[in-house]
């Protein structure tokens, strides 16, 4: 939200978008320096996952849905090249066009371009091939995984 407030909600010139991406990239560097995610991606040990917000909106646009549909988007794997193309298109749209897009609407029209800037910085910093959209969030997935693991373990008699 801070970036949207600072840079506004109108279409962004390419150089302004790149300024935002550079700022986000700078913010990511300490995390990369500490955790070396890029080398993990190179070794094939990373699955990139994005939850809610921009990622699920991009998933709905990727599927060309007439309106957002959680059941179609949750778990969708999108190639980063497709995300790049969708973000390039959205960055050039004015607020009114984003507002009236059936998968964006008024609630995200002012945030989606900044979300694209963040994803662009992430995509450049950590060049994974795909991004999986998760509508229900990581905590729900972890909880379901723990439940499934517990259910498969034998129950010991007291």
Model description:
The protein is mainly alpha-helical and 158 residues long. The protein has one domain: Nucleotidyltransferase, domain 5. It contains 10 helices and 3 strands; from the N terminus they run H-H-H-E-H-H-E-H-H-H-H-E-H. A 3-stranded mixed sheet has the order 1-3-2. Helix 4 packs across helix 6 and helix 6 runs antiparallel to helix 9. The protein is globular, with a radius of gyration of 18 Å.
Please tag this protein with its features.
globular; three-stranded mixed beta sheet; 7% strand; 10 helices; mainly alpha; Nucleotidyltransferase, domain 5; 3 strands; 158 residues
Look at the structure and give the mean pLDDT: 89
Quaternary state, please?
Answer: single chain
Main sheet makeup: 3 strands, mixed
Distance between the termini: 53 Å
Provide the CATH topology.
Nucleotidyltransferase, domain 5
Q: Tally the beta strands.
A: 3
Q: What characteristic shape results from the CA principal axes?
A: globular
Instruction: Tell me the count of domains.
Output: 1
**Helix proportion:** 55-70%
Specify the CATH class.
Alpha Beta
**Relative strand content:** 5-15%
CATH architecture: 2-Layer Sandwich
Listing every helix as H and every strand as E from the N terminus to the C terminus, the arrangement reads HHHEHHEHHHHEH
Supply Rg.
18 Å
Question: What's the number of helices?
Answer: 10
CATH H-level homologous superfamily name = Exopolyphosphatase. Domain 2
Q: Report the uncertain regions.
A: none
Record the strand order, biggest sheet. Answer: 1-3-2
Structural class: mainly alpha
